C-alpha cells in the first residue's frame, strides 16, 4: 500500500513538468482572454485610488494614504499568485461530459487542473506583478527583510494558494450534484470580497465583524499573506494564524477528496 | 408587435428554465440579501463618524448604493445572461442558427435569456432608498423621481450598448467569456459616487466606462442635485452610444458571415 | 487486487508461475443499467411544480446483458439509436457503474478505475474529443506521455509508428481547431493509442467522415489490432464499418442482447434468400420466372429475383440455360435492409406476451 502510493507520487512528480509546460502553451493560446484576466486582477488598484482619496483629509482608523497604498498593492500581488477559475471550468466540463476524458486518465483530474493553474501564473501576473513589487518596495521600510518573516510570507502564500484551489475544486465538484454551482461560487465571492480583506482592510472592521472574519476561511486565502508582507501583522502574532490557515487547508483537502470521490460515483451512476 | 410577442415568449421560456434550476432560485434570493448588506460595510467604514468626502455624506452615498443595486439587478437579470450565451454560441458555431432566423439578430441575441428572480434586487434597491430618505428626513420630489427614472432609462441603454459592443468584439477574438467577469469587477465600483475618485480614474469612470451616468447621476437626480445640462448630455450621450453600438454590431455580423465557412 | 488471475497451483513449481493473462478480455454477466431521469413537463405550471416536487423516471438502458470477448477479437455493437450501445461501452470503460451484474475487462473491475486498468484501455468517441482545442495535437501527445508515464524510448517508437500509419507528420503540428474533421479523428486515434492499450473502445469513430477517410480509419484499426493483438470493440452507424472490420457482431436492441455471432450468419438467419440479378436481351415471361423465385423487379432488359439459399444452385443453372439471359449475378440483400428487417421483428419476449 505504501509502496503503491509512493509509486503514484513519483509518477505525478515525473509528469508534472510536462503538465506545466503544456499548460503554459495552452495559456499562450488564450492571450486575449489572459489580457482580460490580467485587467480583472488589477481591481485592487481601483480600491487603492478610492481609499487614498477617502483618507486624504483624515486617516481612516490608523490607515493613512501610504498605508492604503501598501495594503492594496500587497493584495494585488497575493491575488495574482493565488486565484483560480477552476469553478467555471469544472461546471462547464461536468455539464458537457468532457470530464469523462479526464476520468479515463490514470491520474487524478485535480493534478491536471492544478498544473494548469500554476502554469498560468507567469502570464497572468506579467502585467502588474513586477510593477506592484517595485512599488511596494518603494513604499519604504514596512516590507519585512528578515529571512524568518519572509519564510512566513512564503508559507502563508503557499497555504493561500492551496486553500483557494481546494475550495474552488470543492465548489466546482458540487456541479456533480446540482445543475450548476456557479451561483454558489458567486455567494462565496461576495463573502470573500469583504471577509478576505479584498475591498477594505480587515483592521478597519468593527470588532465583532473582525472576530468573525478571523474565524472564517476567507481571510486565510488573501489578507494573511498580504498583512505579513506589509508588516501589518506582527510575525509573532502570525504563527497562530498560520496554524489556523493550514488547519483550513487540511480540512479543505479532506472535504475536497471526499466530495470528488462521491461526485465521481454519482457521475458514473447518472452518466456524463 | 411581432417583436413584443417574441420578447414575451423569450421571457416565458426563461421563467420556465429558471424554475428548473431550483438551487439557483433559492440562492439567488439569498445572494441578493447578503450582497446588499455586505456592500454597505465599506460605505459604513468610509463615511460613518467622518467628514463628508467631496460633498457626499453617508445618507447621500446610500442613494448611490440604491441605484447600484437596482442597476445590478437589470444587468444580471436581463443583459448578462444573454451575453454569456451568445459568446458561448459564437465559440461553438451555433450562432448560425440564430442568424438564420427571420428576425433581427441583435434583438434575438439580446433577449435570449433572462434571470427572472433578479427582480428581488429591485425590492432591495427600494428598501435602501426608503432607508436613506428616512434618514435624510424628507421624501424625494415628484419631478426628481421622474428625472431619475429618465436617467435610469439612459443608464440601461448605455449598459446594454456596452454589451452589444462586447459581443461584437467576441466575433473577432475567439474566447472572451471573462469579459463579463471583468466588467462585473469594474461595475462594483459604481457603488461609490464617481466624484470621490480623483485623476485618471474619474476620467475613466465618466467617459470610458460611464459609471457616473449609471449610478451617480441618477442618484443626484433623485436628490434633486443634478445639473440640467449634465442630465441632457447624459441622455444624448446614451442615444449616441446606442447608435454606435448598432452600427458596430451590423459590421460584426457582416464580418462573421463572410469569414466563417 | 482487482486482477483476477487464474494461477494453477502446481505442486512443484519453480520458477514461480507468472500471472497468466486472463483468458477473456471482456466478461459481462447479467449487466443491467438503470438511469434516473428527471421528468420535466413542458410549460410554466409544470416547471413551477418541478421546483418543489421532482419526479424521477427510471430508464432501463441495458438489461441482463451477458457476453464475453477473447483477447484480440474485433467485435461490433449494432443496434438502433438509444439501444444501449454507448451505455455498454461506458460501463466497460468504467465511466458508468453497472446497476446490476458483473463486468471484468482485462481482469479488472472497470468501475474501480485502477491506474493499471486505465493504462490498459482507451475510449475514442467520435462526438467528443480529448485533443486540446487551441494547441497542436503534439502537445496532447506530450501530455498523455506524462500522464500515462510512458518511457521516452517507447513513446518515440509508438509515436513514429502511429505518425507513419496515420500520415499525421505535418498535421500534428497545427493547432487542433484548424484541422478538418478527418484529420482531427486521425490525431484523436493517435492520442488514444500512445500508451498501447490492449482494449480499444471505439464509439462511432467514423461519424461524419467521408468515404475515403472512413476507409483509412477502418484499415488503421484493423492493422493496430493485428500488430498488437488488441481487443477492439466498436459501435458504428455505418454497417460497412462493422462488416469490414468485425468478424463478430453483438446486436443490442432496447437494452437487450438480440444476437451474438458472425455477421454472415445473422444475415442468413434474417433473410434466408439470395438475390439474383439478370440482364436480358428480350423480356422474360413473369409466370415462368415466378416458378423459379419471387420476382422483385422486372422490365425489358432486367430482372431481379429472390431465391431461397437452398434452391440457389438449381435456379442459377436453370436461368443460365435460358437464351435471353446475357448476364447473371448473385448477391446478398443490402445490409441496412437486413438490419431494418431484423429490428422490425418482434423480440422473443414480445412474441410470448399476449
From TrEMBL, chain A:
In terms of Pfam families, this protein maps to: ABC2_membrane_6
Query: Could you confirm whether the keyword 4Fe-4S appears in this record?
Result: no
| Annotated keywords | Membrane, Transmembrane, Transmembrane helix
Report if keyword Transmembrane helix is assigned.
yes
Which residues are listed as membrane-spanning? 36-56, 68-88, 118-138, 150-177, 183-204, 245-264
- Kindly give the InterPro entries that the UniProt entry links to this protein: ABC-2_transporter-like
Which PANTHER family does the record cross-reference, listed alphabetically?
SLR1174 PROTEIN, SLR1174 PROTEIN-RELATED
Q: What is this protein called?
A: ABC transporter permease
Q: Give the source species.
A: Chondromyces apiculatus DSM 436
UniProtKB/TrEMBL annotation, chain B:
Give the matching InterPro entries.
Answer: ABC-2_transporter-like (IPR010390)
Q: What is this protein called?
A: ABC transporter permease protein
- Annotated transmembrane regions: 21-47, 116-133, 145-174, 194-220, 232-249
**What Pfam family is a match, any one?**
ABC2_membrane_6
Assigned keywords, A-Z: Membrane, Transmembrane, Transmembrane helix
TrEMBL record, chain C:
Q: One Pfam family for this entry, by name?
A: ABC_tran
ABC transporter domain residues are 46-279
Provide this UniProt record's keywords sorted from A to Z: ATP-binding, Nucleotide-binding, Transport
SUPFAM superfamilies attached to this UniProt entry: P-loop containing nucleoside triphosphate hydrolases
Respond yes or no to whether keyword Ribosomal protein is given for this record. Answer: no
Q: Which GO terms describe its molecular function?
A: ATP binding; ATP hydrolysis activity
Question: Sorted alphabetically, which PROSITE patterns does this protein's record hold?
Answer: ABC_TRANSPORTER_2
Keyword ATP-binding in the entry? The reply is yes
Cite the InterPro entries for this sequence.
AAA+_ATPase (IPR003593), ABC_transporter-like_ATP-bd (IPR003439), ABC_transporter_ATP-binding (IPR050763), P-loop_NTPase (IPR027417)
Query: What is this protein identified as?
Result: ABC transporter, ATP-binding protein
Organism equals: Chondromyces apiculatus DSM 436
Amino acid at each position: 500500500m505504501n509502496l503503491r502510493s509512493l509509486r503514484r507520487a513519483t509518477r505525478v512528480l515525473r509528469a508534472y513538468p510536462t503538465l506545466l509546460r503544456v499548460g503554459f502553451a495552452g495559456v499562450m493560446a488564450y492571450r486575449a482572454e489572459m489580457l482580460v484576466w490580467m485587467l480583472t486582477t488589477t481591481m485592487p488598484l481601483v480600491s487603492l485610488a478610492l481609499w487614498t482619496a477617502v483618507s486624504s483629509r483624515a486617516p481612516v482608523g490608523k490607515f493613512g494614504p501610504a498605508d492604503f497604498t501598501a495594503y492594496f498593492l500587497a493584495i494585488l500581488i497575493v491575488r495574482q499568485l493565488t486565484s483560480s477559475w477552476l469553478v467555471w471550468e469544472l461546471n462547464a466540463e461536468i455539464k458537457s461530459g468532457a470530464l469523462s476524458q479526464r476520468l479515463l486518465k490514470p491520474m487524478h483530474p485535480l493534478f491536471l487542473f492544478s498544473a494548469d493553474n500554476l502554469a498560468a501564473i507567469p502570464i497572468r501576473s506579467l502585467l502588474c506583478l513586477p510593477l506592484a513589487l517595485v512599488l511596494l518596495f518603494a513604499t519604504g521600510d514596512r516590507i519585512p527583510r528578515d529571512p524568518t518573516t519572509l519564510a512566513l510570507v512564503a508559507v502563508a502564500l503557499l497555504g493561500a494558494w492551496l486553500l483557494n484551489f481546494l475550495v474552488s475544486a470543492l465548489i466546482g465538484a458540487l456541479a456533480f450534484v446540482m445543475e450548476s454551482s456557479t451561483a454558489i461560487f458567486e455567494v462565496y465571492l461576495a463573502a470573500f470580497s469583504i471577509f478576505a480583506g479584498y475591498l477594505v482592510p480587515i483592521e478597519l472592521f468593527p470588532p465583532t465583524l473582525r472576530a468573525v472574519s478571523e474565524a472564517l476561511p476567507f481571510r486565510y486565502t488573501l489578507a494573511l499573506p498580504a498583512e505579513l508582507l506589509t508588516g501589518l501583522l506582527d510575525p509573532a502574532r502570525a504563527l497562530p494564524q498560520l496554524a489556523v490557515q493550514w488547519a483550513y487547508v487540511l480540512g479543505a483537502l479532506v472535504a475536497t477528496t471526499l466530495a470528488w470521490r462521491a461526485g465521481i460515483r454519482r457521475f458514473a451512476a447518472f452518466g456524463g | 408587435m411581432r417583436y413584443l410577442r417574441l420578447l414575451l415568449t423569450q421571457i416565458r421560456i426563461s421563467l420556465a428554465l429558471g424554475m428548473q434550476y431550483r438551487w439557483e432560485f433559492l440562492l439567488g434570493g439569498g445572494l441578493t440579501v447578503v450582497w446588499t448588506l455586505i456592500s454597505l460595510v465599506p460605505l459604513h467604514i468610509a463615511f460613518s463618524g467622518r467628514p463628508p468626502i467631496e460633498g457626499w455624506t453617508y445618507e447621500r452615498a446610500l442613494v448611490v448604493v440604491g441605484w447600484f443595486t437596482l442597476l445590478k439587478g437589470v444587468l444580471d437579470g436581463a443583459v448578462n445572461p444573454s451575453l454569456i450565451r451568445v459568446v458561448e454560441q459564437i465559440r461553438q458555431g451555433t450562432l448560425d442558427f440564430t442568424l438564420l432566423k427571420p428576425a433581427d439578430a441583435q434583438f434575438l441575441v439580446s433577449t435570449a435569456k433572462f434571470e427572472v428572480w433578479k427582480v428581488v434586487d429591485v425590492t432591495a434597491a427600494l428598501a435602501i432608498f426608503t432607508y436613506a430618505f428616512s434618514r435624510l428626513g424628507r421624501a424625494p420630489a415628484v419631478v426628481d423621481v421622474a428625472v431619475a427614472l429618465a436617467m435610469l432609462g439612459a443608464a440601461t441603454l448605455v449598459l446594454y450598448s456596452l454589451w452589444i459592443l462586447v459581443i461584437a468584439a467576441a466575433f473577432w477574438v475567439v474566447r472572451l467569456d471573462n469579459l463579463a467577469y471583468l466588467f462585473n469587477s469594474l461595475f462594483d465600483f459604481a457603488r461609490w459616487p464617481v466624484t470621490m475618485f480623483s485623476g485618471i480614474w474619474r476620467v475613466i469612470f465618466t467617459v470610458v466606462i460611464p459609471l457616473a451616468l449609471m449610478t451617480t447621476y441618477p442618484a443626484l437626480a433623485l436628490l434633486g442635485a443634478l445639473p440640467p445640462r449634465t442630465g441632457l448630455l447624459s441622455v444624448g450621450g446614451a442615444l449616441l452610444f446606442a447608435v454606435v453600438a448598432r452600427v458596430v454590431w451590423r459590421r460584426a455580423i457582416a464580418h462573421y458571415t463572410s469569414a466563417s465557412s | 487486487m482487482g486482477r483476477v488471475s487464474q494461477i494453477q497451483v502446481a505442486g512443484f513449481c519453480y520458477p514461480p508461475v507468472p500471472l497468466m493473462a486472463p483468458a477473456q478480455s471482456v466478461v459481462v454477466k447479467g449487466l443491467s443499467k438503470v438511469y434516473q431521469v428527471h421528468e420535466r413537463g413542458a410549460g410554466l405550471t409544470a416547471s413551477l411544480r418541478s421546483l418543489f416536487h421532482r419526479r424521477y423516471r427510471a430508464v432501463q438502458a441495458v438489461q441482463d446483458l451477458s457476453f464475453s470477448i477473447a483477447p484480440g477479437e474485433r467485435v461490433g455493437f449494432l443496434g438502433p439509436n438509444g439501444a444501449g450501445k454507448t451505455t455498454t461501452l461506458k460501463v466497460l470503460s468504467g465511466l458508468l457503474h453497472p446497476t446490476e451484474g458483473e463486468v471484468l475487462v482485462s481482469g479488472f473491475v472497470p468501475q474501480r478505475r485502477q491506474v493499471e486498468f486505465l493504462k490498459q484501455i482507451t475510449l475514442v468517441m467520435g462526438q467528443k474529443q480529448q485533443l486540446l482545442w487551441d494547441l497542436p495535437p503534439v502537445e496532447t501527445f506530450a501530455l498523455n506521455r506524462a500522464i500515462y508515464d510512458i518511457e521516452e524510448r517507447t513513446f518515440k517508437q509508438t509515436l513514429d509508428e502511429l505518425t507513419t500509419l496515420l500520415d499525421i507528420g505535418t498535421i500534428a503540428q497545427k493547432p487542433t481547431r484548424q484541422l478538418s474533421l478527418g484529420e482531427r479523428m486521425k490525431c484523436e486515434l493517435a492520442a488514444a493509442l500512445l500508451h498501447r492499450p490492449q482494449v480499444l473502445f471505439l464509439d462511432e469513430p467514423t461519424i461524419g467522415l467521408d468515404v475515403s477517410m472512413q476507409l483509412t480509419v477502418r484499415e488503421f484499426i484493423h492493422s493496430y489490432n493485428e500488430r498488437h493483438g488488441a481487443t477492439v470493440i466498436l459501435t458504428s452507424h455505418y454497417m460497412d464499418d462493422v462488416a469490414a472490420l468485425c468478424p463478430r457482431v453483438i446486436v443490442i436492441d432496447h437494452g437487450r442482447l438480440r444476437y451474438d455471432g458472425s455477421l454472415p450468419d445473422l444475415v442468413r438467419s434474417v433473410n434466408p434468400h439470395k438475390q439474383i440479378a439478370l440482364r436480358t436481351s428480350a423480356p422474360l415471361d413473369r409466370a415462368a420466372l415466378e416458378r423459379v423465385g419471387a420476382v422483385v423487379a422486372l422490365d425489358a432488359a432486367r430482372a431481379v429475383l429472390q431465391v431461397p439459399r437452398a434452391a440457389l444452385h438449381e435456379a442459377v443453372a436453370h436461368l443460365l440455360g435460358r437464351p435471353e439471359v446475357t448476364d447473371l449475378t448473385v448477391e446478398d440483400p443490402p445490409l441496412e435492409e437486413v438490419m431494418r428487417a431484423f429490428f422490425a421483428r418482434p423480440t422473443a419476449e414480445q412474441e410470448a406476451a399476449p
